[in-house]
Amino acid sequence: MIAETPLHAAENYHPPGNLFVKLEGEQPTGSIKHRAAVFMLEATRRELQDAKLELIESTSGNLGVALGSLAPHYGYELLCIVDQLIPSSKLDRLQRVAKIQSVPATGHSDARAARIALAEELSHRPGYFWVNQYASESNRRAHLESTGPELSRQVGASLRWLVCSIGSGGTACGLAAWFARQNPAVSVVAVEPWGSTIFGTHAAPYLSVGAGLHEPSAIVKRWGSPLAAHAQVPDSAAISEVKRFQELEGIALGITSGACLAIARQLAASHPGDMVVALSADYGTAYRDIIDAGQIIDRYPFPINSLK
């Protein structure tokens, strides 16, 4: 049910040849969230047993698509809580696999906080079960038991830097836990949009495309200690990197992937003897209008801040 995704050598994008991109857009439902959805649905089935409650989840798109596509196999229906910033192409796809409820950001710190607040409210009503990616151990475990071992098989002991985006924290914390156990020489760098305040301190609007949060999630608070460093990348720079990567490699990636590429290319340039992997959460199909409207800008160094 979970695919093994390819590792792409980005030799045109970064000619020294020490930068690779793991293409999670090859998952059956189109993103890395497929892994988390499988693990969380398995955990939900164990917890609910024969109870047939309606599942609910706050989502910016990818997790909702994965959960909505897979939930019927487990006998569940899904209600996705979305905000008004979701790209229209993602919303169209979500509507084909789940029920939708859109919530305005009014009265909350940001759109995602509004979604989470409604999910929590509904979870206290009869007939609903909140999957809750922000606190689910299964979200983290998906990457500790699936993504991490798979990546280790692909790279052996050569990897030194792994760059991934962070929102709920499941991917970053799961991978950091895996490499802390199996190869402590690997530093996992978590990347959030500028304006997100998981680690950042200045709150500002940013695109709702899968990364960022107004505060550290329960996963990050409980399991974030193995993370080596964090960085913030503005949306404009993330979009620029996506456009540059497509121009040079012929692969259209999503916007959070662009933020990871910006940091990964910086690390690969400053550590030419080290293997660097950027984890690409999805392809860029759902963000075409946003990406096409962006421009390629001159890169500048982004601070990479140690968490140790």
UniProtKB/TrEMBL annotation:
<keyword id="KW-0663">Pyridoxal phosphate</keyword>
<dbReference type="GO" id="GO:0016765">
    <property type="term" value="F:transferase activity, transferring alkyl or aryl (other than methyl) groups"/>
</dbReference>
<dbReference type="GO" id="GO:0006535">
    <property type="term" value="P:cysteine biosynthetic process from serine"/>
</dbReference>
<protein>
    <submittedName>
        <fullName>Pyridoxal-5'-phosphate-dependent protein beta subunit</fullName>
    </submittedName>
</protein>
<feature type="domain" description="Tryptophan synthase beta chain-like PALP">
    <location>
        <begin position="2"/>
        <end position="279"/>
    </location>
</feature>
<dbReference type="InterPro" id="IPR001926">
    <property type="entry name" value="TrpB-like_PALP"/>
</dbReference>
<dbReference type="Pfam" id="PF00291">
    <property type="entry name" value="PALP"/>
</dbReference>
<dbReference type="InterPro" id="IPR001216">
    <property type="entry name" value="P-phosphate_BS"/>
</dbReference>
<dbReference type="InterPro" id="IPR050214">
    <property type="entry name" value="Cys_Synth/Cystath_Beta-Synth"/>
</dbReference>
<dbReference type="InterPro" id="IPR036052">
    <property type="entry name" value="TrpB-like_PALP_sf"/>
</dbReference>
